[in-house]
Design brief:
Blueprint lengths: L6 E3 L11 H11 L4 E5 L4 E4 H17 L7 E5 L4 H12 L3 E5 L5 H11 L1 E6 L2 E2 L2 E2 H8 L8 E4 L4 H6 L6 H9 L6 E6 L9 E5 H15 L6 E3 L7 H12 L4 E4 L6 H11 L3 E4 L1 H8 L14 E4 L6 H10 L4 E7 L6 E4 L6 H6 L3 E2 L3 E6 L13 E7 L5 E2 L3 H7 L6 E9 L5 E6 L4 E3 L2 E3 L1 H9 L4 E11 L3 E10 L7 H8 L11 E4 L13 H12 L2 H8 L1
Parallel strand pairs: 2-13, 4-5, 4-6, 5-10, 6-9, 12-13, 12-14, 14-15, 15-16, 27-28
Antiparallel strand pairs: 1-19, 2-3, 7-8, 10-11, 11-21, 16-17, 17-18, 19-20, 20-22, 22-23, 24-25, 26-27
Length: 547
């Protein structure tokens, strides 16, 4: 009997798009000039596709007037605003490379991103939350010799736009004609847990096609209105969000500068959004609003949950309480533009809530033994690898790091553990480095998290490994309880007994209101581990391990 290996190819009757971001947007504008393209609620901004195109034209001309040309890096350091979206498309039209900078960055991180990518022009917010962007830019400017100009919203933006009058339509067309779809369009810095971030370099071809095929699977049309409360600086916002919309004529609806559960649900109701995005923690926060049931969310049809594993119970609530029967889970990484797998509308509920779907069109996935590199059989856990149009060009100016993740066959090694079933559905069980090894037993944190989610008092849970002299590692659970619910450590231990293997029951428990996380909603498990090690006085075990 032949073995069935964990390999699948995403066949498709729809061809890849051989277009730049600008060419694709122009095509959409010609089809739907009077449809609404962008709504930014906080700024009271609205634009049809024709108006949006005109705004990108004006901004593209201003960029050229200020010396920006093909291949130049233009940085954007800002929370979500309408100008952010316009800049995304204007930079692409002139053939420059948009460097998206995390709004949570501080001085050291900003300096690194500007220097490493060689940003020539920085477009920036003035002040956001506790960050004085202008003061931080002033501090790092002398360390960034390639940074020639800085434009601050609310200070220089209008004057900057006025310079567009110096550039003719013919000159703009000349710049646009130079842009090829294989050229770099975007650099995004990965939020690595150790060392400096790496600049994921993505092409027009990467981004346009990933946005297009995500939208195909969501069945977007020009009638869809997509609520985007996730950060634009990340692929979730600018690709799954913006490009999925503009490739199909749908409307981008941005509720606020950053995520707020109240403004998100208000926006869905008032703008009659048909789709809503978020990471699981965002949806959990929305459900916990005391007046959640007062919002009219019946306009919702679909949406995307991505960024981290989704608890089964949360997915069920999204489908029923939010009316998102056609909600889709997306899985991938920034290095794959970002989506590699996605659930298809109409798949069985069990597959919808327990997997990350099937392979996206035109891509390949294989699951390998991370030690030998050999493809494993179906149902056997291994490292998920992706190949195809979505794989990044490179890490910017970092060939060594590029070679560590893209092999000679152009396979992108994700570092994620997963399995593939006989129907090609992928289940992600965790990171290779997140696997807890206790007394020789490999334990998936995800498995324990899913079980603890079923406790009626648990709103959210994260499981990590802690150092142990006896077993190598012990399990720790961080628990966030539902509002007005109570549960003690002893209650949860009793709940686990006879339900999961004894070695999977956490030894350590911590009750919290929030988890340390990145701005994109990814849980910072390394930070959790550092906090817990210090609180439990286990630092000496780290010394033993490294001595």
């Amino acid at each position: 009997m032949n073995k069935k290996f964990s390999y699948v190819f995403g066949s498709s009757s729809t061809p890849l798009l051989g277009e730049t971001i600008g060419q694709n947007l122009k095509s959409t504008v010609q089809k739907f000039p009077d449809r609404e393209a962008l709504v930014c609620v906080k700024q009271n901004y609205r634009a049809t596709y024709q108006q949006f195109w005109n705004e990108t034209t004006r901004l593209a001309k201003a960029l050229i007037a200020n010396g920006i040309a093909q291949g130049d890096r233009v940085g954007i350091w800002s929370p979500n605003r309408y100008e952010w979206v316009v800049l995304q498309y204007a930079v692409a039209r002139v053939g420059a490379v948009l460097v998206t900078i995390n709004p949570a960055y501080r001085t050291n991180e900003l300096k690194f991103a500007l220097r490493q990518s060689g940003v020539r022009m920085l477009v920036s917010h003035l002040v956001f939350k506790t960050s004085d962007y202008k003061a931080m830019v002033d501090k790092v400017r002398k360390y960034c010799p390639e940074l020639k100009e800085t434009i601050f919203f609310d200070d220089d933006w209008n004057a900057f736009l006025q310079s567009a009058s110096l550039v003719s339509d013919k000159k703009l067309q000349y710049h646009e004609d130079l842009v090829q779809f294989d050229h770099a369009a975007n650099i995004q810095y990965t939020s690595g847990t150790t060392g400096f971030p790496k600049g994921v370099t993505l092409s027009h071809h990467n981004l346009v096609n990933n946005g297009f095929f995500i939208a195909e699977r969501l069945r977007y049309t020009e009638k869809d209105r997509v609520c985007i409360p996730v950060p634009l600086y990340h692929c979730f916002g600018m690709v799954i969000g913006n490009l999925a919309c503009t490739t199909h004529g749908a409307c981008m609806v941005v509720p606020d500068e950053s995520f707020h559960p109240t403004t998100t649900l208000e926006t869905v109701e008032k703008e009659k959004c048909t789709s809503l995005y978020g990471v699981p923690t965002m949806f959990i926060t929305e459900f916990q609003l005391p007046n959640f049931n007062e919002y009219n969310l019946t306009s919702l049809r679909t949406g995307v949950m991505a960024g981290s594993p989704c608890p089964i119970e949360v997915m069920k609530d999204v489908q029923t309480k939010m009316y998102m029967k056609e909600v889709s889970i997306c899985y991938g990484m920034t290095e794959t533009s970002p989506v590699s797998t996605q659930t298809v509308i109409g798949t069985p509920l069990e597959k919808q809530v327990s997997t990350v779907g099937t392979i996206q069109d035109h891509l390949e996935i294989k699951i390998i033994n991370p030690e030998t590199g050999e493809i494993v059989e179906r149902g056997v856990s291994g490292e998920v690898c992706t190949r195809g149009y979505s794989v990044m060009l490179k890490y910017w100016n970092n060939p060594k790091a590029t070679q560590e993740v893209i092999d000679d066959g152009r396979w992108m090694h994700s570092g994620d553990l997963g399995t593939m079933d006989d129907e090609g559905y992928i289940n992600i069980s965790g990171r290779i480095k997140d696997v807890i090894i206790r007394g020789g037993e490999n334990i998936s944190p995800r498995e324990i998290e899913e079980f603890l989610y079923t406790h009626p008092a648990v709103a959210d849970v994260q499981v990590i490994g802690m150092p142990s002299e006896k077993f190598g590692e012990e399990i720790m659970a961080w628990i966030k309880l539902k509002k007005d619910e109570a549960a003690a450590q002893e209650d949860l231990i009793r709940f686990c007994r006879d339900q999961i293997a004894h070695y999977k029951i956490p030894k350590y428990w911590k009750f919290v209101d929030t988890f340390p996380m990145t701005i994109t909603g990814k849980i910072r498990k390394n930070e959790m581990r550092e906090i817990a090690i210090k609180e439990l006085g286990l630092e000496y075990l780290l010394k033993i391990k490294t001595s």
